[in-house]
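The instructor's notes for this session suggest beginning with a concrete chain rather than abstract definitions. Hand out the sequence below and ask the class to guess, before any prediction is shown, which regions might be ordered.
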Amino acid sequence: MNRRTGLLLIAVLIVIIGVYAITQVQRARETGGLLQALHSTDHGKAMKAMAALRDRGKSIEGQLVANMQSGNDQVRWRSAVLLASVNTAGSRTALRDALADTYDDVRMDAALALGKLGDKGAADSLALMASNPDEAVPVRTAAVRALTLLRSGPHLPELAELANARPPVYPEGEEPEELPADETLLLRQTAVMGIGVLGVAADDEVASRTMNSANRGAPTAGGAAMQVLSESASMDLEPDAEVRATACAAIGDLADGVGTEEMAGQALKRLIRCLDDDADVVRIAAIHALKQVSPPDAMMGQVDAAMQKAAADDQYWVRDAVGSLEG
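After discussion, reveal the predicted structure:
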């Protein structure tokens, strides 16, 4: 390589380094502007900033952690959301501390972030939050979602208790003139969904503490979870059709995850009964859940007969669900 070529290569290298340095300075300035936008009263502007900051993770961790001590409620919850993409000891500590924040949205987003980060060390605090009747329902619901993301089997009993806390089902013609608002509907539905996951993850030692509404447990965690879900799928016990539909889906997940013939049999019996539910959304959910469960040989005839009956349902979308599965 002659001297001229060498000088040319050096010049090119200097240009590359200079461009890189300028780019980094510009990015740092941009990041600073985006972090400042977290303080904006313009929610749209703040949300755009959050979207742009999500991929900057560890480079902004220090500022996000510092933001969790801000006196601005909006800054704290926005920072909690962003910390869900920063899986470090510092971010997890800040989020755990935020579970005691005075602002509902901060506690809610901190709970969800801890679930997304897989911080099982926060599970006990999340379970207490989920079970606290004085806590805001959206915050409790977020804590249940976090426990589900963590697959926190030891907390199956807490979710069972939440699923059992349902309004009464009134006989036809005996409903009060004004039904009270079902304020824990979403919490109950989220707990039911989580039971389908935690019932697979839990050790059997929690079975004796996982009760249905009649205070009956089961020898195994999966069996105890199935008892609770079977009640949540019943028109006689659960007044809300969306919760019953969710219970059908959770029954399918539980039976599929446990994978035993005994569990499959229990699941199929309940799902077949759900095909007689008054709400088409429940019947559709039951059909899809039946597809998940491998029937024991002794029950194949029952399942086929139930599906044939569903194929003649009065509602088009129920028939369509059967047809889509067969296709």
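Then share the key points. The chain has two domains: 67-150, 156-164+183-327. The chain has a mean pLDDT of 90.
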